[in-house]
Amino acid sequence: MNVPEISIIIPAFNEERVMGSCLESLAQADFPRDSFEVIIVDNGSHDRTLQIAKSYSGRFNLQVMEKPGVRISALRNQGARVARADVLAFLDADCVAPKHWLNQIAGLGMTRGAGVVGAHYLLPPGSSWVGQTWHRYQEACKSGEVSHVPAGDLVMRREDFDSLGGFDESIQTNEDYELCQRVRNAGMPVRALPQIGVVHLGTAQKLGIFYRKQRWHGSHVMKVFLRDILHSHNRNAVLFAVFTLGCAAAVCLGSLVAIFGGPWALPLGALLALLLPPGALSFRRVVSAGRWRDFLPLSTLYLVYGCARAQALLNIRNLS
What we know:
12 helices; 2 domains; 8-stranded mixed beta sheet; Spore Coat Polysaccharide Biosynthesis Protein SpsA, Chain A; alpha/beta; single chain
């Protein structure tokens, strides 16, 4: 059997809604079938994820593994351990790869020391104002040297990945940023290449879902930040969350004092302080883009983002 050029590693847990779309996109890839393999590592799904995955066994070289009760980093590392190719392409189950995705990766000609290449996600068709606005200002058009790329579309040479010890299995989220941080510390680049972007079906389309996703993504941001405070690219995100938490606490406490006869100046001032950073950030972004109509939607998303990340800070278990 030919040794594949690219090993695609997909972690999964209860992904029956999206797994078929993900694997169908790989089945439609404009790339030789014997030149890639797909490794799915499942975290104990109790829906139809495994059944759907195994139905693609005749479409391309597929290996389905089970590793229940671990974090997503461990799933990705397990896939990397059994991969046969020199190039590891990490893809999430809720992502759809364009037909040219594998050709574009193969065309990069990655050699030892290439570090990380990847792309920020593409937006699903028909996305809501939540998805469109956040994508337009936070994810779109990122190219060249970046602080990190998402683990759902991240490519590395096997020897580079192995030399760094893979993903950190002690953290549930922020594992992509943490790996990219170690890549940069080792003197290798982290590059975003839009031509290898994948469509993220998991893009939040409602405000409540956006809040829950940001709260979850913020779970271990502080833990990673505290490892290297002076050099962390997460500094602004952490400070934003800390500031939001302080303002929200001042609003609540000040309102309680005011109800019992104290001045309303404190809670009103704290509320103004809470709204100021989202407004200032949005103003700067919409002026640069020339899209004034995005000011209110973007301000809303920044405020929700800050509140979600602030709530993540309150969970003391996220520091362990």
